[in-house]
């Protein structure tokens, strides 16, 4: 396939590197600023620096940019995307981008398959990309509500590509279920890491901390612009999760204030059991 | 030295293993139940199974048990502890145990040096102990308010032992400062991991999660009895930290509910800056 990747940040860049490392597909990079393109070409992560004109020969278009930019890119270039080109994204939220992208897909004839690679790190940009970033990770696939053969084949193609570049498994879900789960598994940890490090004693932690400080605070090294967008675009599930967490923390605080050893122990024991049932 | 270790759980057991691996000291183990003692003797983590009678030949007594049990052990056996025997503990909180242990130390003549090894994992018992558990970790030393030469030597001896068994550094502090910092660096992450996993969607996370779920939830696999004791014995600093965290999370939630992109972005950016200033 000719694969066009729009946006060579950590995720788009890692797709490029992984595709070149593990498959024979031809990769064309598009990016707003020229530096990542030059860098990617030099290290062999892409075969060619492209532009929107490259879309006419694309068999697949991977949207590696932030959600809003991904939607704009497709909106602005929809007429250039061939009917046979599979469009897939990498956005951390789905409910907001899905209506417009699936509408554009219907209108212009190309299949759209939502995709969220569950991998990343607390760094950004092409410099942070890795061919093996997806090794062992889960790839969440969010198909449109279509069951014609052509569309099923498109979904299969995206799923096969994921497996071939290192993902351990493909998980299928709806935009709503995706966003509900992501609010909990990814957005909530980012929100609480950010709240955590704002304790006035945080700056003095060195010498008094170990693994639990490191693990909780890691993702506070956040891309504020990206995560502001992600949080606001997933407002309802995320505020629900925040309310649940705040209420749980308040329950712990109250049990401590009331010196209620039995209530506290049984709360903690319930958490331990949940982890045990999950085999973690 | 003859070193008596009371309590061969993960921490006491790791002390025993590390001392035998890295030093020439003679190690005597005391434990309520016999299994860990047999196991420790078999694998060479201790030289001898002892009892309270062994204290008369001890040059150092390491209290590896939970805080309350550590205080009881010293209270019950204070008259058996020689004046020349350095008593040190491994408790995760200090303000509560310090008054009684320093009083017993004064009354019976043995030096007491508070100690908190900043290492551990989400498993318990001698089976989880490791000779290299302390490698690279910080050892927090909490000395009494004494500045006579004999006492200074005792503190030096505890500090040297820590360095010789793998700790990267020794940090000196007061019981109050210790407990304030630990509320933030260790207790708060445990509390929020426990609250986090109680979200109703947690049990379905598999396939939708990656590093941030794993890191935040890791310590929810908690020893409920131990941490109930630790939380309640550090009530005031911990509830203060919980209040700060709850208020930070509420600020994030409100910014999202009000769709206030500027407020949210600047909150997250502040967190990023804190991590950056810490070089993390």
User: Roughly how many Å is the radius of gyration of chain A?
Assistant: 21 Å
Briefly note the CATH topology name of the largest domain in chain A: Rossmann fold
What would you call the structural class of chain A?
alpha/beta
Mean pLDDT of chain A: 96
Order of helices and strands of chain A: EHEHEEHEHEEHEHHHHH
Q: What would a concise description of this structure say?
A:
With 280 residues, chain A is α/β, with parallel strands linked by helices. The first copy, chain A, is 50% helix and 13% strand.
What does this structure look like?
Two copies of one chain form a homodimer. Chain A folds into two domains: 172 residues, Rossmann fold, CATH 3.40.50; 101 residues, 6-phosphogluconate dehydrogenase C-terminal fold. The first copy, chain A, has ten helices and eight strands. In chain A, helix 3 runs parallel beside helix 4 and helix 6 packs across helix 9. In chain A, strands 3-2-1-4-5-6-7-8 form an eight-stranded mixed beta sheet, with helices on both faces. In chain A, helix 1 links the parallel strand 1 and strand 2. The longest helix of chain A has 23 residues. At the A-B interface, helix 6, helix 7, helix 8, helix 9 and helix 10 of A face helix 6, helix 7, helix 8, helix 9 and helix 10 of B.
